[in-house]
Amino acid sequence: MKSLFFLLNRCLVTEFYQQSAGFFMVILLLAFGFFSSTEHIALAQYAFRLPLVMGIYWVLWALYGAKTLQFVGQTLRQPEYQILFHLRLVPFRQRIGLLLGVQFSLLLPAVLYAVFMVVKAGIPLKATGGLALIPVFLIGLTVAGAAQTEYWLRHPNARQNRQRFRFWFNASYPTPYVLFFGRYLLRHQPVALGLTKLASALLVYGVCHLYPTDDYDGRLLAIGVLLSVAIHAGLVYQFYQFEAGQLLLLRNLPIPLAKRFIGYALVLALLWLPELGLLLRYRPVGVSIWFLAELCWFAWGLLLLIYSQLLIRPLTLEQLVGKAFWGFVLGVFIVMFRVDIGLLGLLAWGLGYAIFRRWFWRAEWVGS
Question: Is pTM, for the whole model, over 0.70?
């Protein structure tokens, strides 16, 4: 049993944390770069008092659980890990015990944060309902993950029928280039996409509702847009990796550089489309449509500027997130000096296009 658990731990748990180092770096920057421990405790107290806030925590934990399952599923489909299917020969009880242990190890960050919430907020508030439901929910996530892995081990070819339908659909209805990356995210990175859009959407929604509570001006919305764009650095990095790993052939096609730039701009515009919808839906009273258009122009240019950094030299996800973080800090200082947002957007577009024009053909496209 110990040797089997060591094998599973090495193949699944260790590999998961190594490959997700960039993801955890982003989470740490977002969760602990902008909030102190006191604010985390305050959020936990709100969660035990308000079911809606607790539900948000549960959704985040469920998305993280889906990310771990996505990794396990992808690992089992790789030829070098086919040995794991021999676990079917292990007696059922022992096999389930091993899978529960592996799933618990994968969910350990969520479990540790839940323990923090219980110790710092639940027990002092004597919130018996929340104290009972959090362990039940996390145990449910662990059991569900182990059950899904067990199903994959017992049905290794269950995806074949879906693959046939997908092949027929793709052959019958070709996907335009602008939607390639969106389809890739929905298929292969749904958890990263969901977490990024959830964090960004909550930020935009919160800023729009915070605006009328005091004598704020457009700088608050601009700072919110800055942070929302910084949150998307991980998806911009995924876009670069997708192009470098799966669409490198496009580089050799006779496509004018300006047309290529427009294509990249449209792809990045689609990434920020939900936030545009939120800004229009929850537009604060007194904020003009023209100013919202300037904000979107600004966000669009910043996304292009982030992408262009990857053309100058290959960066890891951690390096790109670091650049986005310091860019956000610099942007806050510039915005606070009341520099026109439309002008800042024009500057971002100009820098992005200049870097793209100079470095596109010289870039070292390094895929993961």
Answer: no
